[in-house]
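Input:
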Amino acid sequence: MKSFVYQNLPMRVVFGDGAITQLPNEVERLGARSALILCTEHQRASAERVAALLGERSAGIYDRAQMHVPIETAQEARQMARALGADVCVAIGGGSTIGLGKAIALTSELPIVALPTTFAGSEMTPIYGITENRLKKTGRDPRVLPQSVIYDPSLTSTLPPLIAATSGINAIAHAVEALYSPDANPITSLMAEESIRTLSHSLPRIVEDSADIEAASNALYGAWLAGACLGAVGMALHHKLCHTLGGTFNLPHAEMHTVVLPHSIAYNREAAPEAMERIAHALGATDPAQGIYDLAAKLGAPLSLAEIGMAEDGLETAAQLATENPYYNPRPIDRASILELLTNAYHGTRPSPN
Ligand code: NAD
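Output:
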């Protein structure tokens, strides 16, 4: 076995159907008395349920969380936390809402209790992102790692199938790249393979029946493992491409991950054979790139960049931006090959077998 470094992050997880009722205990454990509750406008009703559960410990609700954490939103929410004298943030929602909690924690050190309602996995990472002047800056900071995560599968039952499917494939993307990360180690690889297996088996059941609690539990477990992989090891080409496309062309985050992932895998297929074998095995497929593409198709998720609003004349710029700064990837990066990858993703072509 090759040498490696593995650092466990200090996570506390409360998991199970109805686990949301444990929230007051989790807030009390932190010694907190005054919670600012975060959500999107769309999830206001869930936040009100949280406020009712917290009773006097609820200081107020900030319901304007948005995709990619605009700096103006972060500043407004930080100001509200200060004005209310909040000593904890309770984030109920997907990666965007949890991301807002992280932006508050970054400057105030307020602890976060996260109640994830999608499968994106942000609650398990010390990674934050804030968007200023259309540029999303990301970083790692232990202060933004939630202190407690409550996974309650009943919270995902209202998820529209498209968000369930694409946030789940976003999580699979973390696990895929963890398997060929330069920091890959036996622990994260074990988590990654299990994550791909549980998500790929449970997502089709959830898309068919959003009230399938057993499937939602499995998917949340898979999302947890995927997020833990993202938090523990470095990512490669796929995440770089999605960051570039998302930032420059303002494409929807989870849908973009879903469209690009089969093509990123096909690109790296021959350079990371052991990882690819594990991905294919977890998917129950003969080829890892086709396996992910077929999963997305089965889930009714978008398959092409064209479908999600990318303009064809942006592909050259995207290839240029994605190759500008060198970064780790199992297969060397060159502009022509990346343009080919992006062109296949643009058209939604099914990857050919290896
Ligand atoms: P999201 O948080 O943007 O949510 C998408 C929409 O779905 C929102 O309108 C939200 O209100 C709604 N929604 C969420 N849960 C719902 C539910 N149960 N029922 C009904 N509606 C619901 O989507 P996401 O995919 O979870 O997060 C994407 C964001 O997370 C991106 O900005 C991405 O960069 C970030 N992210 C960060 C990390 C990290 O480690 N920092 C990891 C993954 C994703």
